[in-house]
Each structure stands twice: as C-alpha cells, then as structure tokens.
Amino acid sequence: MHPTARTWAEAPLPGDLPPGARATHLRALLAREGRFEHHLMVVARVGVAQLEAVCASEPLFFAHANVSDEWVLPLRTGDPLLDHAPLRVFLSDPETHRDVGRINHRVGDAVLHPHGWLHWPGRLRPPFSPPAFPPGQRRALPSVAFCASRPTPPAPDRPVPITRGREEDAKAYVDPPPPLGLASLDALDARVGDATLTWREPPFAPPRGGYVLRPDGALVYLPPGVSLDLDAPALLLASDTEAAAPPPATWDRVPEAPFPPYELADPGGLPVSVGGLRAEAVDEDTVRLGLAESSAQVPRHWLARMLFRIALHTLVVDGAKRPLPTTGFGYVETYGGF
C-alpha cells in the first residue's frame, strides 16, 4: 500500500455483478504502491469524455486552463482528517490573470472547473511555503475528475447548478460572473461532450453501456445491454450516442514510470540551461528562470512539482509511455508568473 493511503478505509466492491460487468474501487487503485502524486489516471471513457482518478497530499501548484469543462469530486476515505478538510478553488481570467471567483467545497461535493477560465485549487498566499509533515504523517486525498480527452468546448446551455443553501460558497468577484458550479452528488447533472454524469436510482441499464460510480469510489463497468441493481442511488456515466469503452489498463496495473524517481536518479544542480530556458539559484527557496528577455522568480519546491507534472502527463497515458512526447495538458502557470 502507498504510505499516504494507510489511513484510508477498506474499499469494498459490489457483489453479484451481471455477466460482462467489471468492478474496481478508485481508492484501491490510488492506494497501490508506485502510483504517482497528482497523476490524472484515466479509469473510464465514453466518447471524448473520461473519468480520471487522482490523489494529492499537497495543494495544487499551478493554475490550469483545461481543454473542456471539468467536474471534480473529492472522495470519502474514512479518515476524518481528510474527509472534513475545507477545500477551495480560485478562478481567474486567462488574459488578465485577475481573480473572477472562488468556490469553497468539501468531500461529497462536485465542483466545476469551467472551460475558458484558469482554475487553481488550494492556491497559497505569499510566501507560498510548502506544508510541513511530521515523519510518517503525509496523507493524500483521492478525487475523481469528469472531463474530456481533447478540446471540447461546452454547450452554452449546459447545466451549471449550485446546490440550494450553498450559494455563499460559490462567490463571483466580477459581473457578469464566470460559470460557478457546486453540486452535492445527489444533485449532479454534468455534461462533457456527448456524455453525462448524473445521479440515478437503480437499476442501471445504459443502452450503450456505461460506468456506475458509487459515492465511496466503487466503479462498475456495464457493457451494452447489461443491467445492474444496487441497494442505493449512484452516479451514472453514459451517452445516448457513444458506446462506453471497456476498462483501461490502469485497472490492472500501475502506470509505468517514465523516468526514475528523484531518489534513484543522479542529483542535478544549478545553474542549468535547457532549450533556451535558463535556471539559476536565488537562494535555497527560490530559483530565477529566464527565457529570451523575460525572467521570473519562482519557489523551487512548487516549480519542481509543476515540471514533474508536465513531464508525467506528456509521457504517460493509460498506464504506458507515449511513443513520442506530445502535450495533453493545456496551459499551466505557477507562482511567480512562470
């Protein structure tokens, strides 16, 4: 088991599956030894839409402009410290970088990272100090994201709900406001491409197949023509026009490492220059980056994590290395404006 998942509760699977159905548990996938921090691991696909499982023990270290709407659902773990942690995401204008809104949320919510805007979950205030964990106390919170695998602008009339009573948690700073979506799971009605992720009563029988996601993270694949009866409502990922793809390889194996972990590689040093990008130490906490006539001073801790994440999502897909480096990530920006 991964050390940051040791406080999670057991991950039970539904029993008595119909023929052709398969089940896994997202907590079990994310608790495997060797999985990566902040790695958006694809676990289900329907057309261009997909579910990505991810876990993190630190706040996200950049603002991100996604290629589609992205609904994020933090998952319950059974660890009270994680399950009751307050969460916050900031939205900003990609042209001016001015904040346009913020959403306070928690485990059990679905929060929208809207297409066309920068989102930054857990953004810190200066001096952007990384969290300090006592030995053996680092813990990771798992989440699942519903988004697209390629650029997919949303329909102008797509639903953007805010659960009644939570209006103060979704605050706009500008008028007109950006799309602010915050829904309890039992009120979720989300669309990406031709697929929907909606709260449904059993039985589940999507004509073109689909995936049933229980609130605790159990995930069931249903091929076309198969019906599943559970003892409680759940989320259904399905489409009226696109068939659900069978489970990807990530259900069966941990994505392979595209490069050696830091502890197993030869240590680098500063200054360094790569492809015209120059980096030199300012002090033990800060590095100066230069490209042509531009420069920025960036916290070393968060810069290292952003560069790792870019490399990870450039080189790994569906549990295997890409044959050639290609971007699948969109725009990102960390502290200091880099």
Describe the protein.
By secondary structure, the protein is mainly β. It has a single domain (3-257), classed as Jelly Rolls. 7% of the residues lie in helices and 34% in strands. It contains 3 helices and 24 strands. The strands form 6 sheets. It has a 6-stranded antiparallel β-sheet. β13 and β14 form a beta hairpin. The relative contact order is 0.18. The model has no long low-confidence stretch (mean pLDDT 91).
CATH topology name: Jelly Rolls
Helix percent band: under 10%
For the record, the count of structural domains works out to: 1
Q: In percent terms, what proportion of residues is strand?
A: 25-35%
In CATH, the homologous superfamily goes by the name Jelly Rolls
Task: Enumerate the strands of the largest sheet in spatial order, edge to edge or round the barrel.
Answer: 1-16-15-17-14-13
SS elements, strand count: 24
Overall CATH class: Mainly Beta
Largest sheet properties = 6 strands, antiparallel
Integer-rounded radius of gyration? 20 Å
- Uncertain segments: none
Tally the helices: what do you get? 3
Helix and strand content put the structural class at mainly beta
Written as H for each helix and E for each strand, in order along the chain, the element string is EHEEEEHEEEEEEEEEEEEEEEEHEEE
Overall average residue pLDDT: 91
The dominant shape is globular
